[in-house]
């Protein structure tokens, strides 16, 4: 057969299928000379530094001329586009509009879910399957079901009378957080007070957020006062992009674990799809049908949908079949759902894992839509997405110049040319392995707490409170004691606050102390 030439012919469809396989595996990205070759990174705590225009193709895989042509559609809504961990494009008519601090309203909720994940990642006591009643008083629980777990609060279903699968009522939004989700802040404060060494000495969730999230991520424009998570975060467009980047990087920042990957996976997948296919843990998940959002609409055109890999799925193992409203109940090839936060007026950060992109927008209600019309709140990011997609496609290793083909494959979760890493490093997601709720306990602890007198202080009044309720203080032979009765409580932490008022050296003095007790300590 020497000297003979063997010619192998393959169909255009087969060739494209091969290219899709190679691109998804990352082979073509390494040789394309654009996005993949630039590498991926995050900025650490340093400010974002915008990629120069003449480097946009090489470092971001975006055509600057096409971006400029679309820019007039985005003049009224400050935005940023992060790709491969770099600030590739931003725009605004107002100076500093992407860097100044401002209220982001309900985008606070997704931040709150992330912070809760950071707390449960470190806590040995609190988890998303902890019982709410074990951590929050009846007065603070209000209408929350006595049997509800934290996961029910995170999915905004905890006030349902029946929490079983298929029995929940129509999903409703906890707009200001006072109906249910603010109890997460109370639980975080208690968990931190119980084990301060696990939280860098932080005294509460607000201080922990500053030390463990804002500072290491360089979120210098961000402030959260604590106490609630319905809408009290102030931040910037640049800082919102960092939160999105943390999700995209599966909870890692500069190689350090900030949030557990398992928690983030649950957060960014449908939590209770029998009532809402498009909501995870205080996070919106793109869905084909069955989603219920207060003001938003799903992206049906060119974004993948969220779906768990097996059923029933964790953490409560309620669902019986494919979720996310995926057409024809097909099994997804890639787990790349588009997820986002959303605050009143168009405050958002949006994650496109398969393309290594994060978009953050401000005042999206003011954005000019593709047809020159005022667009609804959720669509502000769609406008940015519609702008960068054509600017990205000329450099796509498979679908260059074929937007329809790209959207069809990407929407079907079959194509992700810039996926950094699959969830769990490509291993089977742990959805099929039950996460057992921690065994319930009924505490038998009844403690007598001795209250020491501060040196040199004449004590005139003592106030002791157990989880906010006053406890009687006894004085006998100069010794002050209080009985801390934890009997009958479930597995949680009890917080005792002691305030002593008096005088020292003729001047009024107030001394405060806080103690935390596990209700179900070993042997109790």
The CATH topology of the largest domain, please? Beta-lactamase
Total helices: the number is: 13
Total domain units: 2
Query: What is the helical fraction, as a range of percent?
Result: 10-25%
Distance between the termini: 83 Å
CATH architecture verdict of the largest domain: 3-Layer(aba) Sandwich
Radius of gyration: 26 Å
Sheet with the most strands: spatial strand order: 2-1-10-9-8-7
Extract low-pLDDT stretches. Answer: 1-10, 26-38, 367-378, 432-438
Q: State the major sheet.
A: 6 strands, antiparallel
> What is the SS-derived class?
alpha+beta
Shape: globular
Beta-strand proportion: 15-25%
Number of extended strands: 17
How do the helices and strands follow one another from N- to C-terminus? Answer: HHHHEEEHHHHHEHEEHEEEEHHEEEEEEE
Keywords: Signal
InterPro entries: Beta-lactam/transpept-like, Diverse_Enzym_Activities
Protein name: Beta-lactamase-related domain-containing protein
Signal peptide: 1-37
How would you characterize the overall build of this protein?
InterPro entries: Beta-lactam/transpept-like, Diverse_Enzym_Activities. It is built from 13 helices and 17 strands. The protein has 524 residues and is an alpha+beta fold. The chain has two domains: 102-432, Beta-lactamase; 446-518. β12 and β13 (469-471) form a beta hairpin. The termini are far apart. The model is unreliable at 1-10, 26-38, 367-378 and 432-438 (pLDDT under 50).
